[in-house]
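Memo to structure team: turn this sequence into structure tokens by end of day. - J.P.
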Amino acid sequence: MKWVSGTVISYNRETGEGVIAMDGGGEQVRVDLVSSAGVRLNEGLRVSFARIHRPQGIFAASITLISGC
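Reply from structure team:
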């Protein structure tokens, strides 16, 4: 599994859904409560994660916090 890093650019604490911008550009990665294993995020947090492909698009999985505001 290849690990990448990025910054949470949007996150809805009520639904657990959000978007992570990958470092260095490229496509944005979606996150939800299933793919994050329940990890609650905030905008501006730096995270590392694996990418998984689901029918709804590319999602972050196995999210680990790096740092944040």
